[in-house]
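Risk register update: the risk of archive-format incompatibility is retired. Evidence:
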Amino acid sequence: MRTLIELFETSVEKHTGNPLLWEKTSGPYQSISYSETREMVYRLGAGLMALGMQKGDRAALLSEGRNGWLISELSIFCCGGINVPLSVKLEANELKFRIEHSGAKYVIVSASQAPKIAEIIAQLPSVEYIISLDNPEAANRNEIGYDDLLNKGDIFLADEASRARFMLMKESVQPDDIANISYTSGTTADPKGIMLTQLNYTANVLQADKILEIPTWYKTLAVLPWDHSFAHTACLYTFMLKGASIGSVQNGRTPIETLRNVPQNIKEFKPEVMMSVPALSKNFRKNIEKTIQAKGAFTEKLFNHALKVAYAYNGDGWNKGKGWRALLKPEYALFDKILFSKVREGFGGNLQFFIGGGALLDIELQRFFSAIGIPVYQGYGLTEAAPIISANSPIAVKFGSSGKTVINLDVKICDNDGIELPVGQKGEIVCKGENVMKGYWNNPKATEETIVDGWLHTGDMGYLAADGYLYVLGRFKSLLIGNDGEKFSPEGIEEALIDQSPLIDQAMLYNNQNPYTVGMIVPNIATINRLVEKQGIRPGSPEGNQRSLELLQQEIDQYKKGGKYEGMFPERWLPAAVAVLPEAFTEQNHMINSTLKMVRGKITDHYTAELEYLYTAEAKNIINPSNLNALAKWHKAE
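Archived output:
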């Protein structure tokens, strides 16, 4: 199996009547089968060919996850075309760069995203057709509705010669043909277009299949963006390979409304597996804890005790229930029946596990979800590897790790000179295999810098343990660098500050060859206000702001000598001075990207003055004019 078209056709033949796609518009979820999906793909693909799509043509796809998304992509492939999947979170100017850079001739767009395309279409001379997934009432000359395109496809396929041409093109798709040009998330001024071939994807799907066994009756609710390679491989095509089903989130009138549909959709759809990223896992946990707290102090106390028992029973994953832990099984089983099973009902009752990716997942979150009986099997990858490089699984899991490397992929750890390092030593993660990208679109220089003698240099720091588990420590570009040249990855400290302190929502550490590390934090102002108020102080008053800063400092001091978490991290990398920021990192201010990762370069540039101030004597006291002013802005915004 060497192309996605071959994968699709094979699955249709094996699982003809099985439901492939589930969608909810109004009323309950409705499904279409594998064979019905193929019919739609052929009709739409033939319609694209009737418009003039030829082998190698690019089509940009801008839509929320839905049946039409996957049907559109497969239709493009049938014509020998290349899909340029675009995030719905991108602004019009960001879309313009990607469409222009890829040279897309076609744009397939949903109604909610159409205004962005309308804003820039005059500046995109390469675009010949806009295809609306939602059938515009008054189409422009170069705009065509989804149903009209299907009708064109019917006419095209009715002609024997045209049908033969379509089938010949579909069957001529080669493993080395580009399937996607996936643009990096825009953490730099010029995002790079990652060329992933048909073989890159199928190789990675087969690698993923060896990690997780997916029965044909499994369903997944695809809550992550479908344009992202993680959802692409681990969700859409891995489930397709097994004859399983994929559901989409009900689209609302706004992104917020769509997000609010997720909990209800999960309960209704009752998935067996879901994909997750750390930000999503954190939100799920917060909602669970909020529900428990609402049931009263006794239930909360019982739940926390149950977690302690579960944590002890599960150990580090690989030693779950082994040795002395077996003695905890009856108590854990009781808590699972009376507490944890009720939590799982909130996820539909059938959810077996999450497949985690996208960024590093804090070990505490791994323990929490394993305790409630819905483990997150964390993996590691990047789009350039289509994207899976390693993953934990039900048969091989170790908390804190990113799992074992996938089959048919060579992985090594190298020093700055590209020399392979021994087991256990930290360096750059480098890999080589059929899932490694073809290169960057129209960017040979970047390709040569990233792929050296067939080896993909990930830019991520990590090490391989003696037992074969991969540990990912963070991006080299995000490393803290001391004035002595020593380096340290900040992600672990940042995640701990956020996960273990209810007063801190976001945190970023900084050290660029400076005498000490500093931090920028986004406070959870509502939680801080409640604590301040409990102490008889009015939030927002001068005394209240001072007390708020003292409480934040106390949270940070928990990691220093004498604190609750003393020794968790080397003290030299803990923040010696902290800036309280006046606003959160959001996609709107471009300080987090579409995969909810911090865009460190933009944050650093935006807060240059604050960072300079942090290296002054005055800033070492958290109660300083800058932080007091930031808190005043939070209270003004309330």
